[in-house]
Specification:
- This protein is mainly α and 117 residues long.
- It has a domain of 69 residues.
- It contains five helices and no strands.
- α2 crosses α4.
- It is elongated and about 75 Å long.
- The two termini are 17 Å apart.
């Protein structure tokens, strides 16, 4: 009986994970697309150039510019994710909720509670 309750509780916690995973993958794809166009724009306008990578950052010349553009895209995507996380923490009630505040009510149901008390 208790094991069945625990299993049902775990299943209810996992409900919707596939949708969240799909949304996360789509968001990462959009982030990489934005980063790609941003890096290409920066190269086309001259804000970034091969000189920046090879001379200013002193990276080896045998690294291709495609690899360096990919690394720049990766850094931009990481920064976008950090900004998104900070925005969630500031703007969302879930993000602003302090953890560890004492309360009579728990957000997570006890799987072993049989409801007799």
């Amino acid at each position: 009986m208790r094991l069945e309750k625990k299993k049902k509780e775990q299943l209810s916690k996992r409900k919707g994970l596939s949708v969240r995973t799909l949304i996360f993958v789509v968001w990462l794809a959009i982030s990489f697309a934005v980063a790609y166009f941003l890096v290409e724009y920066l190269f086309d306008t001259g804000y970034l150039s091969e000189k920046f990578y090879y001379t200013d950052l002193a990276l080896p010349r045998n690294w291709s510019i495609t690899l360096l553009k990919g690394a720049t895209m990766f850094v931009i995507v990481i920064l976008m994710q950090i900004i998104l996380t900070l925005g969630f923490m500031i703007g969302s009630p879930e993000g602003r909720r302090r953890t560890g505040d004492p309360s009579l009510y728990s957000r997570n149901k006890d799987p072993f509670d049989d409801g007799r008390f």
